[in-house]
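Example 9 (inverse folding). The structure is encoded as follows.
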């Protein structure tokens, strides 16, 4: 029998990308901060209520902007979950900060807000919650702790587009936030990102940092009659060609989200029975959170079982993949710090979590096939 391959991810095109990119090219405005950039930023500001948003060339860049805006450096500490992508920590390491890693919850990979307070010292300046799989962290608890200790909160909302906490859009709750449009996310631009600014204090400086440390944005609005070097910064803005691509995706967001949620639900229904029998855990979405169907994962009982499951699926042409390795055990961290914390939940997700294929073009028949392979793996005796 021929085995048809199911990739882990496949970038989805809505059909309008090339058309808008063509428009950007032939209107003669190719650099950043043009019409498409403004359309995308307005989309986020109007739909979700950010004070201000700025497109960036990646979420990593948006996080670097956040770190600069937080005005942190040598001697300052930043609390970051260890179960996250490198950029969440790296953006602050580049400013000279010390990273203090926090553990995940037992019920889902998000930062355990109950264990946060024990990590705060007089040097702590920022907490960076990551909304893993687009599912909200307990933001009320985190904001309450941050406010009581005078800390800033930067939401790593890379995976959290169009997801909510108690009705509030993720990315609009902390002082600052960062989103990703990397081709593995729900809404894509190849490489791309966005910084969300919710605290008025940061708006002017964000525009300057975005435009190579100059007040060029004010100049273009006619607020000053010349622009020059006023602060630190970099070239964080994407070209109009990238923004045009992104606009085609944003226009079709409802359709993309609907499709992903349908597939996610099919996985959940198909695997519920096995989860009830205790073979693995399904993603937990707390009452305060919504699900934006960024990811479908299961948590196996141990590393050996996960490795065997990944191999079995691979033999059937299905690409399932594990996720983060604990950052507190990374080569970089271990070679720079001597106080390596013990973070058992983070290690558990690093060993046991496996992500299943989830992308727009995936069919319900393919989900069925994947579910059946998983069923066979857990319930049929090994031949
Ligand atoms: C994808 C991702 C990033 C990095 O996004 P880029 O746009 O590739 O820079 C950062 N943090 C998390 C949690 C992510 O999932």
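The amino acid assigned to each position is listed next.
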């Amino acid at each position: 029998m021929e085995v048809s391959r199911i990739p882990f991810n496949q970038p989805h095109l809505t059909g309008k990308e090339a058309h808008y990119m063509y428009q950007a090219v032939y209107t003669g405005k190719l650099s950043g901060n043009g019409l498409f950039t403004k359309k995308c930023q307005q989309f986020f500001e109007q739909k979700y209520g950010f004070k201000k948003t700025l497109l960036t060339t990646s979420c990593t860049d948006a996080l670097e902007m956040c770190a600069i805006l937080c005005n942190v450096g040598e001697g300052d500490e930043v609390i970051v979950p260890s179960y996250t992508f490198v950029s969440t920590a790296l953006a602050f390491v580049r400013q000279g900060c010390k990273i203090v890693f926090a553990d995940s919850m037992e019920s889902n990979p998000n930062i355990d807000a109950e264990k946060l307070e024990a990590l705060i010292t007089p040097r702590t300046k920022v907490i960076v919650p990551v909304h893993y799989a687009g599912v909200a962290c307990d933001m009320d608890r985190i904001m309450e702790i941050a406010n009581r200790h005078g800390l800033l909160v930067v939401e790593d909302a890379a995976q959290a587009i169009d997801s909510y906490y108690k009705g509030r859009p993720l990315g609009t709750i902390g002082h600052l936030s960062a989103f990703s449009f990397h081709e593995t996310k729900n809404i894509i631009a190849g490489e791309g990102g966005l910084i969300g600014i919710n605290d008025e204090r940061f708006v002017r400086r964000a525009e300057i940092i975005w435009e190579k440390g100059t007040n060029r944005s004010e100049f273009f609005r006619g607020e000053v009659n010349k622009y020059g070097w006023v602060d630190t910064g970099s070239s964080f803005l994407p070209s109009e060609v990238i923004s045009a691509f992104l606009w085609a995706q944003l226009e079709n967001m409802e359709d993309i989200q609907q499709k992903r949620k349908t597939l996610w639900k099919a996985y959940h229904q198909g695997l519920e029975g096995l989860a009830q029998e205790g073979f693995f855990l399904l993603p937990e979405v707390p009452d305060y959170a919504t699900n934006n169907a960024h990811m479908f994962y299961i948590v196996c009982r141990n590393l050996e079982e996960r490795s065997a499951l990944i191999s079995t699926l691979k033999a059937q042409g299905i690409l399932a993949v594990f996720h983060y390795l604990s950052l507190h055990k990374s080569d970089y961290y271990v070679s720079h710090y001597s106080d390596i914390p013990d973070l058992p939940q983070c290690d558990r997700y690093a060993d046991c979590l496996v992500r299943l294929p989830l992308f727009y073009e995936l069919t319900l028949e393919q989900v069925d096939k994947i579910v059946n392979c998983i069923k066979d793996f857990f319930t049929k005796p090994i031949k």
